[in-house]
Amino acid sequence: MERANESSLMGFVLLGFSDRPHLEAVLFVFVLFFYLLTLVGNFTIIIVSHLDASLHTPMYFFLTNLSLLDLCFTTSLAPQTLVNLRGPEKTITYGGCAAQLYISLALGSTECILLAVMALDRYVAVCKPLHYVVIMNPRLCQQLASISWLSGLANSLIHATFTLQLSLCGNHRLDHFICEVPALLKLACVDTTVNELVLFVVSVLFLLLPPAFILISYGFITQAVLRIKSEEARHKACSTCSSHLTVVVIFYGTIIYMYLQPSNSYTQDQGKFISLFYTMVTPTLNPIIYTLRNKDVKEALKKLLSGKLCSLQM
């Protein structure tokens, strides 16, 4: 028991990219650049959606939740990563590692469910446009958002607790740049069958069922779009749906590649770079995709900026 508790006293050494010191300076700039982009982009989406009355709709309510998620998710990981890339000491306390694990798991799981909820919103908007306002009322939207956040929290409490209860027998050299479940399982000096079973069940619930629901929703949406006779209405439906679908493909494509393939099918270095992409780059892409591909957001942003300029000139 003494050796098992040793990691909780010493914390962890995050090996990260220490075997490639020439890359660390480049990766520091890379992480800092995308972290700042994430902050600016997602704060912009939140502020614009709040200030512009025309964006007070279910779609932008869920988009605001997504932006808040991305802000919190990246902030839970980026500062520690920057510190470790910059300094000679690459350590994290046991409490810091546990907090990072709980928070990142909760937010990542919440995003899996929230993207499915956003697909439901798009399905109702395209397939049942006359009943959209009645069906997607504010109360239902708040309930769906709450279910997303609570399901992510529940998964984190179960999954992270199972992982942190493993006996590590003093092993504290974590071959990753963040505290992540697969990397922690490799440190365990006991049988991890139960943990791997939990990881499999969680992967099915959060990484297979939501994408399956999204694909079914978009099957119905495609049928409805093909029946629309107005070219303008069809283009608008495609525009709002394509933004969400692009985000879904990038998010699920990366995370499924990371978690749902055999661990021996890719190297540890590949795993680190994949993690770097979905933790630092993906949260940056969401606001860019929605801003560039969405006419409503661009117009709201222009109105906000022109209003600010007018007030400054006066």
Automatic annotation (TrEMBL):
Residues 41-290 form the G-protein coupled receptors family 1 profile domain. The chain crosses the membrane at residues 25-48, 60-79, 99-120, 140-158, 197-221, 242-260, 272-292. It is a multi-pass membrane protein. InterPro entries: GPCR_Rhodpsn, GPCR_Rhodpsn_7TM, Olfact_rcpt. Pfam families: 7tm_4 (PF13853). Keywords: Cell membrane, G-protein coupled receptor, Membrane, Olfaction, Receptor, Sensory transduction, Transducer, Transmembrane, Transmembrane helix. CDD domains: 7tmA_OR2B-like. Belongs to the G-protein coupled receptor 1 family. This is Olfactory receptor.
